[in-house]
Amino acid sequence: MNDATPNHFAQGPLKATRGPEIRDGKRREKLLDRLRLQGFWPVYLAFVVLALRPPLGEPHVALVALRFAGLGLVLAGVAMRVWSMGYLLKKAELATAGPYGRTRNPLYVGTWLIGCGLALNAAWPFNLGLLVLFNVLFAFIYRAQIGIEEEMLSSIFGEPYAEYCRNVPRFFPGLKAWHIGDVSRFSLGRALRNKAWEPVAGTLVLLLLQMISWGLLWPWYEGQSIDAAFSALLRGGWIGF
């Protein structure tokens, strides 16, 4: 690390002094938005449709544990996204504190955890197939998205951003946080301004739809009346009692 770099961070979070300049950025981002819509929503639908039975309805304790591991990943992903949004000031400040000291893309790590968890929360053996499919799509689309954002941040922040990239992993979080100079602290107000409620609400909707799938739709499809299925759902069928 050269002696000049710490001075960029010593007086507080690094502020943007110029706008982003990236080659053909708008067209590339529109293409990725289209790929996300067309690629991921069918997979999310599959997460719901293939939720054939509740977690405790799996025939083996290891499969039950796999389903609950999926739920744990979902919760961890939501927490990661909310935590990250409490530090983020897009295009105006380089976030290096909190989760940004361990990974340069904690929001996408959170999205990845949520997707992996929802995949595992479908029924065995479909959950493993969905997990593989989700990861292939995620690697293809978000690798390109991260590349665009790195170009943008490099054009805004220059050498200090390059120093940050040399010290913080691109995706999978490091065990030790990189910390240099004065950094911003978590702000719930900032998280709410960044719409932190959206991943919470969206994830809850998908979990609820999975629950409806295994507790109402599949029992109805197999010949049970909706009234009977709904009564069973309220008595514990939502989890498999």
Q: Could you characterize what this model shows?
A:
- This protein has 241 residues and is mainly α.
- It has one domain (23-237).
- The protein has nine helices and no strands.
- The protein has helices at 4-10, 25-49, 61-85, 106-120, 126-157, 159-167, 188-193, 197-221, 226-237.
- Residues 1-5 have low confidence and may be disordered.
Beginning-to-end CA distance, first to last residue: 58 Å
What fraction, in percent, of the residue positions are helical? 55-70%
Counting helices, strands and paired strands, the structural category is mainly alpha
Q: List the domain count as a whole number.
A: 1
Sheet with most strands: none
Gyration radius over CA: 21 Å
Q: Which stretches are low in confidence, meaning pLDDT under 50 for 5 or more residues running?
A: 1-5
Fold topology:
Layout: H1 4-10, H2 25-49, H3 61-85, H4 106-120, H5 126-157, H6 159-167, H7 188-193, H8 197-221, H9 226-237
Helix pairs in contact: 2-5, 2-8, 3-4, 3-8, 4-5, 8-9
Summarize the structure.
The protein is an all-alpha fold. It is 65% helix and 0% strand.
Quick tags:
mainly alpha, elongated, 241 residues, single chain, 0% strand, disordered N terminus, 9 helices
